[in-house]
Amino acid sequence: MSDIIEIKNITKEFKVLNRREGLLGSFKDLFSRNYKTVRAVDNISMTVGQGEIVGYLGPNGAGKSTTIKMMTGVLEPTSGEILVGGSIPYKNRTKNAQEIGVVFGQRSQLWWALPLVESFRILRDIYQIPEQNYKDMLELYQSLVDIEPLLHKPVRQMSLGQRTLSDILAAFLHDPKIVFLDEPTIGLDVSMKAKIRTLIHALNREKKTTVILTTHDMGDVDALCRRIVIIDKGKMLYDNDIEHLKSFFGSYRTLKVRADGDLREQAEVIQGELPDMKVWADDEWISVLVDEEKAKVLDVLGKLQQSHSIRDMKLEEISTEEVIKKIYEEGVK
Amino acid sequence: MKRKGLRFYLRIYRKILAQDIKSKMSYRADFIISTIGMIFTNIAGFVSFWILFRSFPSINGWSYHEMLFLYGFSLVSLTPVQCLFDNNWSLRQYVYTGDFIKYCFRPINLFFYFQSEVFDIKGLGQLAFGIATIAYSWSKIGLGFSALMLLKLIVFLLTASLIMIAMQNAAAATCFWIQNSFYVLDLAFGMKDYAKYPITIFSTVFKFIFTFVVPIAFIAYYPSLVILRPDEIPLLSWLSPLVGIVFFYLSYRFWMYGAMKYSGTGS
């Protein structure tokens, strides 16, 4: 497998004005040159092979979209090297654009008033897709999803799910080497999510397209990615197989209970009873992070029931955010 | 990848424009009302012009019909900015919401792609009105007619229109740096109202400003001298096509510079 993306020690810094508080402060800011440097991406290196699907994870503001903007050629790294398909993206923005497809979850790049098929025709011209390839691609699409009803519907009349689906199809239309998907399933219902995951998977398999997927939905990751990369505060925390990650964190589950009385006070009591587990509370639930290798969830629940009156409970698999939080707090062995 | 020449861009332009016109027409009531609005705006503009000149038969040696020619010239040369570069008015919105980034991912020129998306069909009414005004005043002044004169008229109209486009580009591009660029844009666009008067009626300071700083005198006054006063054409008139092209190019660079800088910081 040849490498399609090569990133070596890239760093991206932004200059941000130090804002002062209040009206007077804002007024002073007008004349201020008091900048601080924020490092959005800090010394990240990775290589991605042709045909891989990589889950690119991290909490909001971790530097994911900054990295993606550098890979798409919109941003120039402050330092470090980045090669996409053998060339430097920000120096060859238009050439690079020919080789990539981009989907931003909530922002459609299609023409609002046009039926999908007409958007496709404009894209065919913009990307100079040969007629035969264009036809083959439409046939492939037809075999994967039911696009007939979409083709003649103006984008503005589509549901969010249909629009996302259309955006993904549009991003793959010119058979790019890489497709960047930024939260493609955000805000969609379960069946639409499944449909979109299946589609991405099939297109990746058929066309050997590399897919860089950012998401907060562990379901996306489980369905699509063999490999995940996690960053937080601009630093890379993890880059390995998903199996590897699960072996560290898969045995954790979150037990959520509702008990009588003030939840936060209760949580402190519970923490006292379960000193080696993480316990926290929000407005609705008391959460206990249970390591199933050390204790069974049911035992923990039983223990809690003895001393608290539990009104309700639910069990959650560990979420991406929690995995990342854990990785960030404890690191990866 | 094939080379992307003028023909490529023309074809894309036609397709993308067609989509906008289609979508505009799909809101029929909106389309009709705004067309009527545009016609009335033109009539009102003409009526106020006519009232003004009924009491002053000539201004600084400019007769009523010559003034009318100037007026028509400015209307026509302001049409392209109205029709083809209307998306500049929305630029601020795209930048503010972050949607501007979608223009950065296509393998075609960013400025071209952005401007191609909107065609303001209302400008065509202005064009028709302007052409009629030029034709009427042309015959009244008795300029005569030759193919060369028509060619001159067209060339000077086209290059004059670049000035207003350049001003609007530059004004719109300020939104890459400042929050509320609407006022800059509105100010720049408001300047067009001074374009329909002969520059000789202004004081020396404004003459200088309108020629060298905010070059609106090149929108109608200098280029139309080539037609109206063929015996005493100043150098600046002959330079007006060059001024148009240079200013347009500078504004394009400025716009692109802003766009690159923006995508460097926005999220």
Notes on the structure:
The complex is a heterodimer of chains A (333) and B (267). Chain A is 39% helix and 29% strand. Chain A has 333 residues and is α/β, with parallel strands linked by helices. Chain A has two domains: 3-246, Rossmann fold; 251-317, 2-Layer Sandwich (Alpha-Beta Plaits), CATH 3.30.70.260. Chain B has 267 residues and is mainly α. Chain B has a two-stranded antiparallel ribbon with strand order 1-2. In chain B, β1 and β2 (62-63) form a beta hairpin. Classes of the chains: A alpha/beta (333), B mainly alpha (267). Chains A and B meet through α2, α3, β5 and α4 of A and α1 and α12 of B.
List the main descriptive attributes of the protein structure presented here:
heterodimer, A: 333 residues, Rossmann fold, 2 domains, six-stranded mixed β-sheet, 13 helices, 29% strand, globular, B: mainly alpha, two-stranded antiparallel sheet, 12 helices, 71% helix, 1% strand
Short description:
The complex is a heterodimer of chains A (333) and B (267). Chain A has 333 residues and is of the alpha/beta class.
Please, how many domains of chain A?
2
Poorly predicted sequence stretches spanning 5 or more consecutive residues of chain A: none
Characterize the main sheet of chain A: 6 strands, mixed
Based on the structure given, which CATH architecture of the largest domain in chain A is correct? 3-Layer(aba) Sandwich
> What is the count of distinct domains of chain B?
1
Number of strands of chain B: 2
H/E series of chain A: EHEEHEHEHHHHEHEHEEHEHEEHEH
Please give the order of strands in the largest beta sheet of chain A.
Answer: 5-6-7-3-8-9
Averaged pLDDT of chain A:
85
Radius of gyration of chain B: 20 Å
- CATH class of the largest domain in chain A, named Alpha Beta
What spatial form of chain B do the alpha-carbon principal axes imply?
A: globular
SSE-based structural type of chain A: alpha/beta
How much helix, percentage-wise, in residues of chain B? Answer: over 70%
* Span between termini of chain A: 28 Å
